[in-house]
Amino acid sequence: GHWDEARRAFEEAVRQNGKLVATKGSGAPGTLDLDKVYNMIGLCYQALNKPEEAVSAFETGLQHNPEAFECLSNLASIYTDVRGDYLKAKMFLEKAQSVQPNSAEVANNLGWAHELLGDPAGALSWYRRAADLLSPQTHPQILTNIKNLEHRLNKEQSS
To answer: What pTM value is reported for the model?
Structure first.
């Protein structure tokens, strides 16, 4: 119920274009950028378990702002979790990382993408980057990922 209502409200904001919504970076008081509105529409579709509609919304957000960090990150999530297209997910994550190079979340997700693509050394590098960005409050799962990959790489090197 509420996700669908929210989606309809955001879509109405787009239809009313000009009153509530602005183009990229205009920063007009009381407005939202179109990429952010489409990101919210995409999140609503994700919550409604409609990944194809979510992808469409996030991609529309990127048409309005090719550097829309949230749209890039959310597309990567769908390509990883729903579509299993890890290469495409990695591409979106790399673009997100270029927009916000100090995002520990993106660094961690890049580690996961590299791991899924069979690149443990690349994964380890990104997990370490995420840990460095979060230090001293590094999430225990990141530390576990690092430890497991170090063990795996050491084992591969010694055999």
So the answer is: 0.80
